[in-house]
Write a structure and sequence with these properties.
- With 482 residues, the protein is α/β, with parallel strands linked by helices.
- It has two domains: 31 residues, no CATH class; 393 residues, Alkaline Phosphatase, subunit A, CATH 3.40.720.10.
- 33% of the residues lie in helices and 14% in strands.
- The chain has 14 helices and 17 strands.
- The strands form five sheets. Strands 1, 4, 5, 6, 7, 8, 11, 12 and 15 form a nine-stranded mixed beta sheet that branches.
- A hairpin with a 6-residue loop joins strand 13 and strand 14.
- It is globular, with a radius of gyration of 24 Å.
- The N and C termini lie far apart (59 Å).
Length: 482
């Protein structure tokens, strides 16, 4: 090594290189005789699983419709007539049981029960209750698998959203899509394995890029946001005067230099960088093509609703998600903000449901008519639920609901889950789970299982510890599997 390289040789470089000494090699071979590179560990006693599932998957692709801000399950799917009967009366302490409250309602001296002002009807073969706010979703309940007994550990938005998206309340862990990308690889050479779509011009709880970040996994597994407009992916297009041929030659030369650097230092991020450059070059053609929906027939726009012609809306993003599924993008994360209903809930819910109900149902019907629902899983839900009592003043026409982590509802449709199923249940006050609780880690373990991944075996070693999406808990919810 030349003197200049020695001058730039940091303590971290020294420790990194010496960790590959004979002692480390011997220890690694004892702990994992199948491979010494921590990034290829499939599990403590398993085989490396990078690029292939542990067992035959039922799901090839996922569309996760994340409703940021936490929709009120009590006004959408978890019908509780007792709340209407006892409207305005105090939440019994025997039901609350001293459970933790947020700082927004902890100072309230009264907790008046708030029955939903919206009508509910039973729909489908299994009689699932659906609010009048969701007429389009009500039409497809026989395709849906409701889980009414979801629960989380977090009581505030940021840690709760981080928890359900990454398996930890603390920032820095890889997102679900990144774990899937890392574990299974790509089925499309020209598009990212993990694409993120965010409804434009929506306000509510902040969405941080770490929700779709790669954490400590190699950086090519991070989610790539596609934005509406002429530049769907920032910094993707060539500057004026640079032709595709010039760009390709530049990338070839750059790859040669980076391979030399990789051979010298062995840093896997160098390989990740090469992979990202190659993907960016391919996306210069593939992204404009996938984003252009002008060729869709008029009946498709009618199915998704009038907003589907407006780029960046929830409806347009649902249509785009279907197009990405057709191109075998493995994980599509769609975020829609604005569900945080601490006050003015009735009007807020009407607005949110008008934006999302028709496109969500249309996406599921569209996938089914194309034969794509057979191996695609659609997930709809937020980070936690809402309280059965009113935050602030309760009136005949208005109320709010605080955060409630003890129970909330999500639904799924498509590959691997039972159709027309209602799983789990809450008490008649809609406050506590009384049947088949499903923790966030259980949900994550089930999602990984459907994609052919054993969540206990897909592990990545980082800073001396073996991490996984579900951390140290999580059980597959076998009762909902088809």
């Amino acid at each position: 090594m030349c003197d200049q390289e020695n001058k730039n040789y940091s303590r971290r470089d020294f420790l990194t290189k010496t960790s590959l000494g004979l002692g480390a090699v011997a220890l690694s071979s004892l702990m994992n005789p199948l491979g010494l590179n921590a990034s290829t560990l499939g599990g403590l006693n398993g085989y490396p699983t990078i690029g292939k599932p542990h067992f035959p998957p039922k799901v090839k692709r996922v569309i996760y419709l994340f409703q940021s801000g936490a929709p009120s399950q009590l006004d959408l799917f978890d019908y509780k007539p007792l709340l209407t009967k006892l409207n305005g009366q105090e939440l019994p302490e025997s039901i609350r049981k001293g459970q933790r409250l947020t700082g927004m309602t902890a100072g309230q001296t009264s907790f008046p029960l708030a029955g939903s002002i919206f009508k509910f009807n039973q729909r489908g073969k299994n009689g699932a209750w659906v609010s009048e706010l969701m007429p389009y979703t009500a039409e497809i309940t026989d395709e849906l698998c409701f889980i009414k007994s979801m629960q989380t550990d977090a009581i505030n938005h940021d840690p709760a959203a981080t928890f359900i998206q990454t398996g930890s309340q603390f920032p820095g862990r890889p997102s679900i899509g990144s774990w899937v990308s890392y574990g299974l690889g790509s089925d499309n050479e020209n598009l990212p394995n993990f694409v993120v779509l965010v409804t434009k011009d929506k306000f509510g709880q902040p969405l941080y890029s770490r929700l779709w970040g790669n954490g400590f996994l190699p950086s090519e597994h991070q989610g790539i946001p596609f934005r509406p407009g002429k530049d769907p992916v920032l910094f993707l297009q060539n500057p004026p005067g640079v032709t595709p041929e010039i760009r390709k030659d530049q990338l070839d030369q750059l790859e040669q230099l980076q391979n030399l650097q990789y051979n010298e230092y062995g840093d896997p991020e160098i390989k990740a960088r090469i992979s990202q450059y190659e993907m960016a070059f391919k996306m210069q053609t593939s992204v404009p093509e996938i984003m252009n929906t002008e060729g869709e027939p008029e009946y498709i726009y009618d199915m998704y609703g009038p907003d589907s012609k407006k780029p960046g809306t929830y409806a347009a993003n649902c249509l785009l998600a279907r197009r990405l599924v057709e191109k075998d993008v493995k994980f599509i994360q769609l975020y829609h903000q604005g569900w945080d209903a601490h006050g003015g809930l009735p009007e807020l819910m009407k607005r949110q449901c008008k934006e999302t109900d028709q496109p969500t149902a249309a996406l599921i019907k569209d996938l089914k008519q194309r034969g794509l629902l057979e191996d695609t899983l659609v997930i709809w839900g937020g980070e936690f639920g809402r309280t059965n009592y009113s935050q602030g003043a309760l009136t005949p026409v208005d109320y709010g609901r605080d955060h409630h982590p003890k129970c909330f509802t999500i639904f799924m449709a498509g590959a691997g889950v039972k159709k027309g199923m209602v799983y789990g249940g809450t008490d008649e006050f809609g406050y506590n789970i009384i049947e088949n609780p499903v923790h966030v880690h259980d949900f994550q373990a089930t999602l990984m299982h459907l994609m052919g991944i054993d969540h206990e075996r897909l592990i990545y070693k980082y800073q001396g510890r073996r991490f996984r999406l579900t951390d140290v808990s999580g059980n597959v919810v076998k009762d909902i599997l088809s």
